[in-house]
Amino acid sequence: MKTLALVACGLLVGAAGYWWLYGPDTVSTGTEINQAFAQATGSAVDATAVPAPAPVPVAPERVALPATPAATAPPAVAPAAEASHVGVAPVSTSAPAPTAVPEPVPGNALLLPVQGITRADLHDTFTDARSEGRVHDAIDIMAAAGTPVLAVADGTVEKLFDSQRGGLTIYQFEPSGRYAYYYAHLQRYADGLAEKQTIRRGQVIGYVGSTGNASAEAPHLHFAIFKLGPERHWWEGEALNPYPVLHDGQAL
């Protein structure tokens, strides 16, 4: 039986090959193949039972898809540059620091008349006794010879005077003419200083010295304030203590 089956298979294969080589004119139908197989084996074979060759897979047609847009990368953030290099300060998210308010300075109405001197350097010598039974009526501000003397306020140079006691002196009137400021024992006047000249607060008007009856070993500025009468005489006036005005900010 196995032999018959092998022979039948051989006939089928041979018939298929012959049909492939010589075309359908020789072996044209499955019926003829079935008759040949029946003659050889004595049994018919249903040609439709022969499995059809497996279809050759065809690659699907490629359809061009729209290009997917590339994700946009976020812009690169450069590190904050140092303000000293590029002139741009880094942005800060913290609350701004409160602006420092300068502490009110006692004596702000009048500037300290010696450069570099602080309120702590002042001493109240207004009532100190002087020769011939006099009272000082001023304060002495100790400083090195040649230290600049500053105008305590805006005003006018009323008188430049060289006296035996005060040496080189300056009488300054304030704009209203109610008060006179007196600077004495100066080493010299500032260059160009002249009577009736308008001067400004903080302007250098002279230099600390020891002219007049001051000791050369203790150069200082003798500073006084006078309240003037209606005559506005520079050599007359009521002496006021400069210490609380300069040290404590007391108003005139």
From TrEMBL:
It holds the Pfam family Peptidase_M23. CDD domains: M23_peptidase (cd12797). InterPro entries: Cell_wall_metabolism_enzyme, Dup_hybrid_motif, M23ase_b-sheet_dom. SUPFAM superfamilies: Duplicated hybrid motif. Residues 135-228 form the M23ase beta-sheet core domain. Gene3D superfamilies: Glucose Permease (Domain IIA). Its cofactor is Zn(2+). This is Endopeptidase.
